[in-house]
């Protein structure tokens, strides 16, 4: 009987620990895929990427509990649309990769893909077409 109670106690502690961990998880809310602007989480707790889904422009958004560190910086301020193309919300979206600084951007209308790299240093930020995609 003592073994049964000990096993029960161990299992109870394990499951209590698992539920405590899951309560600390970040809850992601669905975003409207057709919204003109969307925020994408990076693995850096202070950084999000703000995507203009109608033309592919991206800004790095940094927040902080210290007012001095919050702000926004451009990653790509050039529209990826050809001249004369209409901006339609929901056209571009981002997909995270296993590299914390890189995302793949997809033009959902043409299938063109782009490598998006964010960085704290401006010279290391870029958006470039992925060779061989439907650009």
What does this structure look like?
With 135 residues, the protein is α+β, with helices and mostly antiparallel strands. The protein is 16% helix and 31% strand. The chain is built from 1 helix and 8 strands, in the order H-E-E-E-E-E-E-E-E. The strands form 2 sheets. It has a 4-stranded antiparallel β-sheet, with no helix packed on it. The protein has a 4-stranded antiparallel β-sheet with strand order 5-6-7-8, with no helix packed on it. The longest helix is centred in the N-terminal third of the chain and has 22 residues. It is globular, with a radius of gyration of 21 Å. About 7% of the residues have low confidence.
Q: What is the compact description of this entry?
A:
With about 140 residues, this protein is an alpha+beta fold.
Keyword list:
135 residues, 8 strands, single chain, alpha+beta
Low-confidence stretches: 18-26
Order of helices and strands: HEEEEEEEE
Helix content: 10-25%
Q: How do the strands line up in the largest sheet?
A: 1-2-3-4
- Give the mean pLDDT: 83
Please tell me what the overall shape is.
globular
Rg estimate, integer Å: 21 Å
Q: End-to-end span in angstroms?
A: 69 Å
Largest sheet: 4 strands, antiparallel
The proportion of residues in beta strands is 25-35%
**How many helical elements?**
1
Structure classification = alpha+beta
Number of strands: 8
Q: Oligomer, anyone?
A: single chain
